[in-house]
Amino acid sequence: MQFPSVRWLLAAALLAGSAMAQAADRLYLFNWADYMPPGVIHDFEQQYDVNVVQSYYNSNAEMLAKLRAGGDRQYDVVFPTDYFVARLVQADLLQPLGKKVTGRDHLFPEFRAPSYDPEGRYSVPYQWGDTGIVYNTETLPNLPHSWDALYDPELNAEQPFALLKGDGQFTLGTICAWQGHGFDCHDRKQWVAAAKAARSTMNRPNFSGFVNGLAAIDQVARGVIQVGIAYNGDYVNKRATGGEAYRKVGFFVPEEGSQRWVDSMVIPKHAPHPELARQFISYMLRPEVAARISNFTGYTTPNRDALPRLEPRLRQPPALPDEKTRQRLSVTPALSGEDLQFIQQLWTEVRSR
Fold this sequence. Notes:
Blueprint: H1 6-24, E1 26-32, H2 38-48, E2 51-57, H3 60-68, E3 77-78, H4 82-90, E4 124-136, H5 148-151, E5 161-164, H6 168-178, H7 188-202, E6 207-211, H8 213-222, E7 227-231, H9 232-241, E8 249-252, E9 258-265, H10 274-284, H11 287-297, H12 323-326, E10 329-330, H13 337-352
Organism: Kushneria sinocarnis
Subcellular location: Periplasm
Region (Disordered): 301-326
């Protein structure tokens, strides 16, 4: 048997060390598309001498499936919506942030210990906003500010409309609100009643399907649909940058109530670079950085000390909901166990019939 030479062993060790060092100089993000300013990424790379690699998902359900399939070993920072933070914790897919994440003192008190992560152990808020209805103000100038716009077949018997693509719990929550039970309903009988209404809605001839929030805004602007569901920040951004066609697109939060959401930053349990991830989250909490993020996304910030730095359009409705609107907003309940299984199975049955 021939043994490798000492010179060869040293060369191999140097190559392995170089590869490890190169890998350690990368930070892997798993985020929503168009949700991070390129300039912020560039400045972080320059300051910490790293390369940031971004991958994207279109829904929380897609993100969760990816992490369960081994993605918790591929990504360093992920950006789930509030109630999915609880699902990730229940699935044992997250690690505690620990004390090395700094800057929480910049947050508004209401975001430091949220209901979905009561001790703030696993998550830090990134952006927040609400979900409402977008519509064509020219074809539907007198549309009631109600979920009737989507779910009442007599009010809208002909104009094409779409529902929001993604997790079924949201859609059932909007119907619960329309039926008088509140967006944050959690009674199984109420879910069943909402599921029946969802099925009836999907059977209407003018139902065009499920689309994401940005697509709904675009489709209203182009006349493909006349009513849809979107997020307030996307609406604000499209109105500001989309051109003349977007001037006819209106937005409101239904009077029966809707979703208040918070997108958060978390570290997967087996993240390849957890310490670099903590540095990144701490960097995101700097007020000047948080303001740059909001000025790019069109959403408001949970960072109290960043608020004065926001563009004026982001310090007023609809980007920043007023107090009257905020009283109508609810977070999506964080379900677990049999309740989560029940509502997922219920939604699967709704979509498959």
